[in-house]
Amino acid sequence: MMANLINNQSESPDCLPIARMCDLARLDRRTHYRLKDRAEIGQDHIELRDHIQQVALEWPSYGYRRSVLGIS
To answer: How far apart are CA 41 and CA 61, in angstroms?
Structure first.
């Protein structure tokens, strides 16, 4: 929650530096950037997982060794 607040404030032209806002919020700066990156790529990951799941459902044996399935 604090990371989102800092993110929103950092877009303002007259804001404090991110390092200072993190200090004031007692939030590690690395944590701020990690959460920011996670939020930005979250939707892409969801779409990718959906595609992978569709392939897995369509081809349930895909990726297994052939000898395990009895196929030579």
So the answer is: 29
Nearest-5° Cα angle at 32, 26 to 7? 100
pTM above 0.70, yes or no: no
Please list, residue by residue across 49-71, b when 16 or more beta carbons sit within 10 angstroms of its beta carbon and e when fewer do: eeeeeeeeeeeeeeeeeeeeeee
Which tens digits make up the pLDDT trace of 18-70? 888 888 888 888 887 787 766 666 667 888 889 999 998 998 877 777 665 56
Q: Are 62 and 56 within 8 A, CB to CB?
A: yes
Q: Which residues of 26-40 are buried (b: 16+ CB within 10 A; e: fewer)?
A: ebeeeebeebeeeee
